[in-house]
Amino acid sequence: MSTKLATLRSRLGxxxxxxxxxxxxSAVCAPCAIVVxxxxxxxxxxxxxxxxxxxxxxxxxxxxxxxxxxxRKFAWPLVTVRETEQDVALLVEQHHKIDTDLVAALxxxxxxxxxxxxxxxEQAVVDYVAEFSxxxxxxxxxxxxxxxxxxxxxxxxxxxxxxxxxxxxxxAAAFWNRFLLGSAHYPTKTQIERIAVNGTEVPVFHQGGMPxxxxxxxxxxxxxxxxxxxxxxxGFASLSGVNNxxxxxxxLSATSPNAAEFVGEISHVADSFRVRFHFxxxxxxxxxxxxxxxxxxxxxxxxxxxxxxxxxxxxxxxDNGSRQLAVLEGSVAKLSLTCSNKPLKSAVLTIGTDAxxxxxxASAPAAGSGVxxxxxxxxxxxxxxxxxxxxxxxxxxxxxxxxxxxxxxxLKSDRLPRIVASAVTRQVLPTATPKLDYAAGDDFGVAKIVxxxxxxxxxxxxxxxxxxxxxxxxxxxxxxxxxGQIPVPLSPYELQKGDEVKVTLEVTDWRGExxxxxxxxxxxxxxxxxxxxxxxxxxxxxxxxAKQLDEILRRELGIGNEKR
Length: 564
What we know:
- By secondary structure, this protein is α+β, with helices and mostly antiparallel strands.
- It has nine helices and 28 strands.
- The longest helix has about 45 residues, at about 5-50.
- About 20% of the residues are buried.
C-alpha cells in the first residue's frame, strides 16, 4: 500500500539495516581478536615454561573465562540492540535538530491514528514531512569506520597467527594438543630418543599415568640416555622426592667424546622419587622410580621334645626365636616363617648341600595366610643329628633377602645315667648271696639295671656273667631316681677260696622309643674265703670298732691327753 511517507520509510529502513550491520560486524571482530590474542598468550606461556597438565588446565579455564568476558563486554551489548523505524527517525531528528515532526508523521500515518484527535491536523503534519523529507539526508552522521577498523585488527591478527602456524606447523600442532590437555611436546633441536633405568626402558613422553620402574632397596641405579639431533656435551637428571620435598641433580656424561649415549649412576637412595632428563633444549616427561623394600622375614621355631623328656622340660626353657637351637635327639622342630611388609611368592630351606626344601603356606586359618612352614617328612620331623640350614624367600616383586637366614640345630647332650652301689662286707663264702645297696638316677628316667659279674679264679681263668636285676615298665615312667637292694647269688658259679668276684652295676636310661644309653657304676669286689677267713675279718672289724669306741669315750670324758 503506497503512502505519502513511503520514500522516507524506505530510507529509514536502509539506515536501520546499515546500523545493524555495523553493530554485528563489530560484535564479531572484537571478541574474535581477543580470543586469538589469548591463544597467543597461552602459547607463549606454555612454550616458555613447559606447563604441566595442571597449569595447562588452569590456562584453558582462564582462556574460556576471558573469552566469555570479551563476548559479554564487546559483543553482547551490540547484538542485543533492537532498533525500530521510529528509533531511527528519532536519531535523525536529533542529528538534524528537527522537532518531533518525523516521528509524529510516521505515527499519524498509522490507521489507529484516526482515533487520536483532529484528522486535519494529523494530515497537515504528514503532508509537511512528505514535502521536505526527499531533501533530508538520513545517513548524515552515520559512519562505517568502526567496522573496518575492528575487521582490520582481526584480519591482521589472523594473518600473523596463521603465518606463524604455517611456518612452524609442528609447534602449532603441539600447542593445540597441549591446549586441549594432550601430551604432545614442542619440537626441540635436541631429541631424547631412549631412556633406560637399570636396563628397563622408560618412555620419553607418555600419556595417562606416570610410568614406574621398581628398584630393589639398596641397589645402585644405572641410567642411560640416547640423544639425537643437536647432541649436547652433557645432560642431567633432576630428582624430586615422592613422599618428601627432597631434590637433587645428577650429571650425565657421554660414554665417549662426541657420543650420543649418556650414562650416570644414582646411589644411596632410600625412598621413591621422580626423575626428569634434560639435554639441550629437550626435557623428558617425569618417571617414578619406586624403591621396593626387600622382604622383612621373621623366623620362629616350635620345639617339641621327645615324649620321655616332656615331663622334665621347663616352660620357656627354649628360645623359639633363636636361629641357633639345641634340642634332644628325637625332638620335632616346627618352623613358622612370616614376612611383615609384603606377600611372599615362595620360600625354601636348604640343609647343608642337600636339595632345597620348598616351604608351604599354612592352611590352618589360625596360622594366618602369611605363615610358611615345613612340609612333612623332613629331617626336622625327628631330629637325629646336627643340622645346618639356610632359608631364602622370593616376594611378589621377585626380590629375595640380601643375605639368607642361616642357623643350625645341634643335639643337646643327654647325660648318661648314674648309679652307685655298696656292700656291707667284702669277704664272702662260695655259696653266699651278698647284697648290694644301690641308688640310680637319670634326668628323664631309669629303664633297667643289670649286674655284671666278673669272676677271676685262682688258676688264672675268668668268666663274665650278667644278672638282670631291675626293669621298670614304660607305664611306670618316668622314674628319675630309684633305690634298692640287689642280691647276688654266688652258688651257681662253683667258687673256691681265693677267687675274686667283681660286681658292676650297669644302668640304662629311659628314652621312650629311642634306645637308651648305659652308665656304669664303680665295681664292688668280693673275695671268696672260708669260715676262718670270715671270723678273722669279723675279729679285725671288732678290734677296729673297739678302738674307735675307746677314742670316742676319751674325747667325751676329757682324758684324751693323759699319759699312761
